[in-house]
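pinned: reference chain
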Amino acid sequence: METKPLTDLVKIAKSAVADSPLDAVRTIKIKTTNTTTNLQWTDLTTYVRVNVPSGKQTPGETAVDATKLAKLLGLATTTVVELEIDTALKLTAGDQKIKLPSAVAIADLPAWPAEFKPADKGELHLDPDRLDYLLLAVSSDLTRENLTHVFFDSTGLASTDAHRMHFVKCDGPKEAFALPASAVEQLTALLRVAALLKLYQQTAALTYSASKPENNSLFVEIRFDSHQFSFTIATMAKTGNTFPDCTQVIAEAIKAKLSFSFDLDAKIVKKISAAATTLEAKGVLIATENDQISWTVSDADGSSATGTLRGSLVENAKVQVNPKYLKDAIDGAIASVDVRTDMDPVTVHVGNDRTAVVMPIRL
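pinned: its structure tokens
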């Protein structure tokens, strides 16, 4: 099979399972048939199964350490590797022969979740770039578990860490649910493997099924299927009512009268970020004076960096925001930024389908 997709898949598995204290979780199950290779792994919250077409090979099954396999694949210098399984996994890459013993017995691996009767099912049309945009705003605070998830509903997808919210407009599930960030990270990476194999143009079509909720939790399966490559992600999720109402958050953010708006691109954000890093500043002040919109970054000693912004002015105002949040909100694109008062959230609009709400730093 091709070395690049296999290497990428093993890296996805490694990132998900390598830190587990359990030997049986730090592994990838590999099963070969005459024409396909199946990879399977889990962090005990999210379960992933991938099928990749292969050349003619001998059927076999083993479970190997994900980190060790990733390192050994890094030694392969050919575009194609051959897999063989007996008592160990053997990789042949040209004149290289790599051997990796089994880490645990197949019987000791975590079982794939039991099948469930779907309470909701349908299609999702997802773009990995948009998913990455959502992951930028996910909270890492494990004491606020609902904010460590990405929210899916019929109007779009959203994420928040309580300081900013990212929203992507798209067709989502009929009944809302929130997936763990780790599951969305793996989904995003798997879609990029599918893109590498040129299996879709811009937006991948997937199917989902969701179980009946119990105690604000449910099980969700997401599938991508083509004759060349397929994967299934099964994960514990939360019901939609455990997540902030993104529609209401955006409505509240734009309720106050607009003071001014300006254009923002990656070049300007780079200047602001560099100044904030140099001066160790936590905020950038955006203000109007003499019919001009400007940004200023300063430190406690009075050192500062400033620049101008192009936009339209309704009335004078100022606001201070986290420069990293601005950078994440535009994510390398060109955006329109709306400012109201120093107490109101800043709203960032990227294209026709992405909106970010950034809370101000109090002046």
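why pinned: Residues 181-196 form the longest helix (16 residues). The CA atoms of residues 293 and 309 lie 5 Å apart.
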